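Format notes (please read before filing issues)

Several people have asked whether sequences and structure tokens are stored in separate files. They are not. Every record keeps both together, in the order shown below: the sequence lines, then the token lines. Line labels are part of the format and must not be stripped during preprocessing.
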Amino acid sequence: MTALAPTLEAFFCERLITQRHASPNTISAYRDSFRLLLTYLHDATGTQPNDLEMEALDAGTIGAFLDHLETVRGVGVATRNARLAAIHSLFRFAAFRHPEHSGLIARVLDIPTKRADSTDISYLSQDEVEALVSAPDITTRRGRRDRCLLAVAVQTGLRVSELVGLRRHDVTLGTGAHVTCVGKGRKQRSTPLTVETAQIVQQWLTEQENDQDAPLFPGPTRRRLTADAVRRIVQRHAATAAKAHPTIAGKNVTPHVLRHTCAMRLLHAGVDRAV
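Then the structure lines:
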């Protein structure tokens, strides 16, 4: 019997951080994948994460977990494949540390990625965007945070990992207002803010503590929001906005749809697609 916990810890500390020098966003994505897997195993078997053995992660269990992500959590094929990629990476690492589990590891590595059907890219119209950004109840602190988050997301097109990673010092207001982030591929970029979005951000910042390293969009414990929290925020306010604009109800509004919306607005404005 081989305990899973030491292997998982070594994968993060040795493989991702020391050997690969993985970016914080990559580490966060892998962490979320295994958090979901460990939670699924606990709910299914009652076993605590520190008591799990490698044998518990056979191909059948991993396949059931991937099905759970799609059918219960409602994730798309791309997200399902991203979670599988994290699992494959762990098992390739484990293959050299635990050759006694070569058969089990090989069967998990044989689980294929899933092909996605080609679908039309969904995005919001200007009226729908205005309805969505106006949906939060700005008489509450959470509502004002959500309004700011939605406005920044739609206007900048940031990925969720980039959005939740923003800190106060990443925001520059006044002339040439913009936000700066380090995104995919460790690339740093600055994205300009419109006058309207800059005003919303300014109003939100006046409520925050004067800690420049604090998250721009904190959760209830003052820590940064998770990707799941952002997904729930978008879906909750999309449902509210659909009451004023029923066309929204026919769209699966996700954080990535807001990214698509930003891209389409730039395209319609004549901005080069290479930007």
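For reference, the curators noted about this record: The first strand starts at residue 171 and ends at 172. Residues 24-45 form the longest helix (22 residues).
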